[in-house]
Fold this protein.
Amino acid sequence: METIRQKIQSLRNELNEHNYNYYVLDNATISDFEFDTKLKELEKLENENPQFFDPNSPTQRVGGAITKNFETVTHKNRMYSLDNSYSKEDLLNWEKRIKKILGTETLQYTCELKFDGASINLTYEKGQFVKAVTRGDGFQGDNVSNNVKTIRSIPLSIASNFLNDFEIRGEIILPLDGFFKMNEERVANGEEEYRNPRNTASGSLKLQDSSEVAKRPLDCLLYQVVTSERKYKTHFESLENARKAGFKVPKTIQLVNTIEEVFEFVNYWDIKRHDLPYETDGIVVKVNNLEHQEELGYTSKAPRWAIAYKFRAEQVSTILNEITYQVGRTGAITPVANLEPIQLAGTIVKRASLHNADQIEKLDIRVGDTVYVEKGGEIIPKIIGVDFNKRHVNSTKTKYATHCPECNTELVRTDGDAKHYCPNEYGCPPQITGRIQHYISRKAMDIEGLGGETVDLLRKEGLIENYADLYDLKVEQIIPLERMAEKSAQNMINGIEKSKEIPFEKVLFALGIRFVGETVAKKLAKHFKSIDNLMSASFEELINVDEIGDKIAESIIDFSNNLGNIQLINRLKSYGVQLEVSEKSLENLTNKLQGKVFVVSGVFHQMSRNELKKAIEDNAGKVSSSISKKTNYIVAGDNMGPSKLQKAQDLGVPIISEQDFIDMIN
Ligand code: AMP
Ligand code: ZN
């Protein structure tokens, strides 16, 4: 006699198999009716025998779980962007760069389609699905597991002959026919149509009710396996095996040996992509050998071992109805073209960016014109020209705005700046709100429980006028606000309180000083160590810092001389916000490697390549990617590239081991 447990297990296996055949292989092996009958049977058995509950059972696919707040999860491995290329020349240059770093003449690549959806990172442990996290800012994303689990083509438990612990990355997409069907239903219900498949896919991931997500025809195409298990030698091999293990790895992937072959792939898909059941906006070329990938590593934004190639953008023409002006957080004015709505690359376009006054002047864009609109990689399409044949005889030249549309202050434009600015920094409503929204944002103070819309609301209610006011907020003031309750109010206050632990470099970025972005803030924090040192620094002292130019220095001095800012900073200090570098982060910093230039090559064991580089920089050394006469040391791990080795020997650069390096800094 089969035990109940066995019965449950065999139903699960059977249903998983049917799911796989239907959703991954596109090959139904059972009727819908039979499938539903078996699913109901399993559901019943599971309900009667709760001790056999399994979060990865096929019964869990129908959704039902509600996620009110998506938990923020730090990625174990950062999710990078991709560098873009647009021509054969770009690709040849890329190839040249990486061959130089690797010191090799021959390389194998994979060519893949670049799927246009929402990127997702799936984590498996012991072959079981554990979580699905969105890319977010690359460092942290949202845990959307409940929603992702409803996507039938994603296996929840996989055979043991693949890897045990791994992450697999892919794109959640909405195939076109599903998208059109959803829109038909919306039209029938008198609702507004969804704009495009990509936004609808990523929006779906953030729905609170997973049973709603289960109804949407989402799919997940996988393109990268991330693991510390060294079972596979190449990217291609790892994906082929992922496919065998049940993942939907598109068969369009192709192995090639030259950039010429990459171009054949591009040319083929530039035409054929219109026959695909989903959208793609380009291709991705990746170095196939995983050791090579490791050796090449990453820039601050993207892997060196991969590059995207964008298909040429689609164009349409439509009528420009009106030019309006938007005021950004820093007071920058952006002219916006309000267009006669038109379908472009799967999207209905109503607005396009006009960039700045020069652009309007150069293209001689006027209201009433028929304009050409193009959609590249950016979300906002742009206007690339005017159809002068269709211009009306009585059309008049565009006069650029002279005053701020929000506060009516006269706009200024300094020499060398492409944009006009509203100089009313501390009185212009969108600037005030924008500065606070920037302050709380993820890359800045990362305040949990408080979002951009709530900032808007707090401002409208007169509860805050600047970011320092956040720290005076009381739960009782927040509870009565729209869509707030005791718990959410308390969360927000806790989040604000917790931001007092955010390290100085992020606080400095959060302050929103013009031209002080994330990287500059880091540099300044490292150099000046406190806000007091920074604010009292002279112009000369500022421009003497590596990579700090006149513009940044001037902006910091302006900021520091402003009485309102001085008061704000004093208030932040009094609340306990970190306005100097903490003792702890200074602990590992030394000047031991001052003036020394290192090249790091190969695979390491005691620390990762990135940890090694960080250790060099923490000790005041410099990391360079290629060997030259200026190189002082090469830290060599396993499998250092042969031509690198040759070059090092030719130039007489000392080659040291990982252990030598560790001894050097300790
Ligand atoms: P971008 O957002 O333009 O920097 O491009 C990077 C994104 O492309 C990744 O985060 C992925 O979501 C997406 N992508 C789509 N298809 C692929 C692919 N085949 N390989 C790598 N990334 C891909
Ligand atoms: Zn203004």
User: Anything to note?
Assistant: The chain has 25 helices and 20 strands. Residues 2-62 form a domain with the Helix Hairpins fold (CATH 1.10.287.610).
